[in-house]
Design a protein that fits this description.
With about 350 residues, this protein is an alpha/beta fold. It folds into 2 domains: about 220 residues, Spore Coat Polysaccharide Biosynthesis Protein SpsA, Chain A; about 110 residues, no CATH class. The protein is built from 12 helices and 10 strands. β7 and β8 form a beta hairpin.
Amino acid sequence: MKSHLQNLAPMSQPGHSAKTPIEVSVVIPVRNEESSLPALISSLQAQTVRPTEVVIVDGGSTDRTVAIARALIGDDLRFRVVQAGRATPGRGRNVGIEGARHDWIALTDAGIRLDPQWLERLLDVVLVDSEVALVYGNIEPAVNSFFTSCAALAYVPAKRVRPEGSIRYPFIASSLLRREAWQRVGGFPDLRAAEDLIFMEAVEKQGFKIGYAPGATAVWQLQPTLGATFGRFVTYSRHNVWAGRQRYWHYGIARHYAVALLLLVLAVVHSWWWLCVPVIGMVARVLKSIWKNRAGRGLMWALNPIRFGYVTVIILAIDLATFTGWLQARVSKPPEQS
């Protein structure tokens, strides 16, 4: 792939760092995010290498998201708000990227706070290797309560070890993308969920080179309560089914419970000892989830009964949300087909 680096002019926007010859547009799809926008915009303004442009694409907010965004931006000409009507995150990203002024697009989401060196670390990768078309940064859960610490153990993917360092990926909300890759795969699907996974898989299938920046950390705000977590996963589940991606998530959960149901039947007709098998399986599943995210903590920490109980309840709630969203998707049509 031909490098674009030599064709880019030096950055001259007010307040922009001159550390890098690469001009970057940050694109952020939002909808009803009045409470999370201040932290995100503040973290963008505090970057050690500031973006040349920030495009906030509102997807039809019914709260004060747009007004708050404009108030926070003030007279910073690098920022602009685009109102795209009622838009999914996929369409919102497409609208933002299409209207962006630069060939490099950094992507993040509302509900995120960026470390000051986030953009600088992403850019370091393409400055070293101009053939890279997509860079994944790291993402960390924001742990600000006992519940969110348990939620992180229950469903946040564990870090993977790479030559560059330990990193949680792939997350589109912590990434840097060459416009050419976006164009080649036809942009993001116009979906509420799974659009990021489908897009990232398409980029990889096209053979674009992927880079990794473990030091480019975005901090992800988790849902603060069990009810909010359940509701969010119902939405994810429903939209994933509409996107036809049950085999990547739903089928695996369904197999677990199909086996448990079979063992329950055996317990009724043969011996109640059969119930030990699904119980042991659930215990092993919870322990695995805790252990892989323990971040160097010891066995006694992992076996804390209160923590174990909370993680178990969260996992069971997510399982129930999975089946609830699956059922909803089967009895209703996607919004665009209604």
